[in-house]
Amino acid sequence: MPRLKTTTLYGWLLFAPAGVMLTLFAFSPTIATFWQSLFSRGTARRPSQFIGLDNYEAMLADPIFWQVAKNSLWYAVGTIPTSIAIALGMALWVNSKLPARTLVRMAYFTPTILPMIAAANIWLFFYTPNIGLLDQMGRALGLGGHNWLGDPSTALGAIIVTTVWKEAGFFMIFYLAALQTIPPDLKDAAAIEGAGRWTWFRRVVFPLLMPTTLFVLVNAMINSVKLIDHLFILTKGGPSNASKLLLYYVYETAFSYFDQPYAATLTVVILLTLGLLAVVQVRGLDRRIHYR
């Protein structure tokens, strides 16, 4: 019995640092945010009052929220699969016997180490009307100029391109590390069996990369929600909310309109959505994952 108590105490001591950090920086802020979402917006003359779920009802009736949610959905659809596919392709490329392989790896990874603000300013030189690189290339081909960030039909697409350029190199590192753990004997055995490159990739490589794919997928999903720096530099959510995403809408509501309860409401919805998607992803893909 004393030994069991000692083991239990040892386990709680190991858990204590992580438990304290999670409580201070995850659980407590989440509970406080949900509690704040149940109050009205306070002013100097009219203090904040408990209103229950009225903020959630107002959110469901808010046309801007639905526009932002639609933008966020298209942004996730445009960035997540594209970033993962490009990252996997780059990892396969730089993992092969390639001349100047180290230089190519560094070139692919360079956008990742750039600050978000710096990356956005670089792409601002591409998108600026008339003097931007895209318009200059268009004029060389006999095409007219275009306001890429000022046109509602292209603003969100421009943000998606910037994000894919920034994130693909980051995800490539995880795939490259996973590829280097695959034993060479497997490739020799597949060659003996007469498997071609596509069969080798589809039957052996990709199944072994599924744990990495799940990890990258969850991170890509989180990154698709937390974008704010690029929007602040490139479009500020415009024009006409065409490129505004959820986290930027939270920032704008809290610090531009000073409606912190409504911003807390939006934050709670974001957290619930991310949690549900993460559960679905983990449970849906766990059966197809081969752990070694």
UniProtKB/TrEMBL annotation:
Superkingdom, taxonomy of origin: Bacteria
SUPFAM superfamilies with a match to the protein in the record: MetI-like
TM regions (residue ranges): 12-35, 73-94, 106-127, 155-179, 200-222, 262-282
Membrane topology of the entry: Multi-pass membrane protein
InterPro entries: ABC_transporter_permease, MetI-like, MetI-like_sf
Coarse class of the protein's main subcellular location: membrane
Subcellular location, record wording: Cell membrane
Residue span(s) of domain ABC transmembrane type-1: 69-281
Record's signal peptide: none
Keywords linked to the UniProt accession: Cell membrane, Membrane, Transmembrane, Transmembrane helix, Transport
Family: Belongs to the binding-protein-dependent transport system permease family.
Protein name as annotated: Sugar ABC transporter permease
Organism: Aquibaculum arenosum
Lineage: Bacteria, Pseudomonadati, Pseudomonadota, Alphaproteobacteria, Rhodospirillales
